[in-house]
Structures are given as structure tokens and as C-alpha cells.
Fold:
Amino acid sequence: MGRLEDKVCLITGGARGQGAAEARLFKREGARVWIADVLDEEGQNLASDIGVEYRHLDVSSEREWQKVVDEIAEKEGRLDVLINNAGIFRANRMVDTPLEEFELVMAINSTGVFLGMRTAAPVMMAGGGGSIVNISSLAGMRAAAGSLSYGASKWAVRGMTKAAAVELARKGVRVNSIHPGLIETPMAGEVGPGGEKIISRTPLGRSAEADEVANMALFLASEESSYSTGSEFLIDGGLNAM
Structure:
């Protein structure tokens, strides 16, 4: 019996990278998995490959969130797990950051998480509870020059996670955040030369694999973490301890 046997799970940003790794792992652990993304061809190919559902979802759209969650509630009868994984990265120093870029990063990385929690929580509460896992970043724990928009968005995720956890605890819904360091995904390529510098400063001396983040998400999605809520879980090779 899998660790997520028959749990209904929605994973955003599920077409590739961390989201795809989570979808594959959750499926192997017995979950009924729905993945959502704006990368429709990649998402549909993955869904067909591993036997899960795919839906288009722009996480910054209130209407699209409601459509996807309503369909899951209608077809599955409940929603047990939400992995707010969708996100983008933009590198720019504060004085060079256009307002449009800042607003785009915040819309996807922060507003998307807010809309996901707000839309999914009522369905989870109606079903007796659930687990929300928000993918923040090490950039949501410590400052990093050259990525103010990204850092701001991930600090916001950290704060929203704690507030939502307190509000939803008595309703049976747990909310936690994961804070990865450098992970080997397509987004890592956008970090550029700074990625090598991060690795050189990391005590474990390497970046992480997407499966390592997926394993943490699995723990938080499962009943194994039943007494954890409002907490931060780092996957950073010891970098934040420096």
C-alpha cells in the first residue's frame, strides 16, 4: 500500500522539473494525481506517460483556479493534497527591475499560491482535511542580491504559509513550505553563472535533484507529517546553516 493511497493530489507547475518528479512519485505511491501547468504539450505528454490527469492552469488566474478545483471536486469528490509548485525566476538588481517584471513574478509565485490555497481549502475542509505544500525557496529564508522580485515573492509564500496554517489548523488542513536551494531543473539554468557560486558555497558541495524535493513533498503530503503545520522545510545542502 502506497504512502498516498487513493489521496487526490493537485500539483501545479507539474509539466516538468520538480512538479513532474512529484507527479511521478505521488503516482507510484498510490495517489490519484492531477497536474496543471501552462506548458500544455509537455503536461499532456507526461500525463499520458504516467497515467494522470492534466489541465491547463495559469496560476495567476482566479477563474482558472476555480475551474480546475471545481472539476476535481466534481469528479473525485474531494481534494486531499495541493502542491503549489508553479513558479518563475527573473534575475535583476532592484534598481534595474521594471515594474512589469516585478508584478509578473509576484503574480505567479505569490498570488498563484494565495489563489491556490484559497480555492482548495474549502474543498479540503468539506472532505475532513488535507495538506497544502507551498514551494518557496532558500531565497525566502535569506537575502540574495540580483533577484529582488524572486526573493520578495518567496518570502511572501513563507509568510502566507504560516498565516494559512494557523487559520486552517482546526479545520484539519495542514500548510507547510519547502525551501529548496539550487535544484537541477530547467529553472536552474536561468540562474546563470551564479549557480556555480552557490554550489561552491554549499556544504554538501552539490545541487539537489528534483527527486529529493519530491521526497520532501511526499512526506508533507502524507500522514507521516500529521503533526507538522506552519513549518519550513529546507533542502539546501546546509547552505542556510552557514
